[in-house]
Amino acid sequence: MGSFQLEDFAAGWIGGAASVIVGHPLDTVKTRLQAGGGLWNTLSCIRMVYKKGRRVFGFFKGMSFPLASIAVYNSVVFGVFSNTQRFLSQRRCRELEASPSHTLSDLLLASMVAGVVSVGLGGPVDLIKIRLQMQTQPFREANQHLKPRAVALGGQPAYHGPVHCMATIVRSEGLPGLYRGASAMLLRDVPGYCLYFIPYVFLNEWITPEACAGPSPCAVWLAGGMAGAISWGTATPMDVVKSRLQADGVYFSKYKGVLDCISQSYREEGLKVFFRGITVNAVRGFPMSAAMFLGYELSLQAIRGDHTVTDP
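Below the sequence we write its predicted structure tokens.
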């Protein structure tokens, strides 16, 4: 059997859609906390989003684009990870004349490849999602001492939807503008996916009894949720930098790059700024990743006609 399998991409698409639906409200809160604007704790942020975002609808601001695109994004990430890991495992085992199995080195390299690919595809998706989420905050509240680029907007939303947002960014900043914050995203996602897939695989093996042919849906849900909490919790410092760089430019431009963002953020708010939203990240990471892995594994099981859940 060849190494490349399309089923992983299809299952990743289904899992990605499930994760967006489950995690977007907390993702909105996380983005607003990290981007700044005087919000210092989770409860005050939730109240602000609820008040200024037309009640509950504010938490789902910008979800249509992620729902359509992040499903594709996760399809590629899971497909690339699974096929890379499978290729490495089969190649190594052919050389050793052993049965295929995964090792830490296989999982590490496959996770890094998935992290690099995720930035190329997910950078513009994340940028547009964050720009739309940030519009519940008028520019005059975002930073009093900066002169806005869009004073003429009078506090009105800069973007009228995902397509208008993308067109506006390309028109004003060119195609490279869609990859604002890509360096920070790369520094977040490469180690982040290592701490996402590797804990999931090993937690699955640890939870599942040896007598079972494969992990149960409950084991997948628990291992996926724990892996997500670990990954998002440890990725928070660079996630803060990425969010600030991507939110920068809605009404004004403040940062020149990753190092400038780190320097300004530290100078203005201290070391604690890089851990802003860590609680939301970890809490949000559990249900999102649990839904992601469960959707992936169950759909993969249905596509292949298996009766047991298998590792990615």
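The chain has one domain: 7-304.
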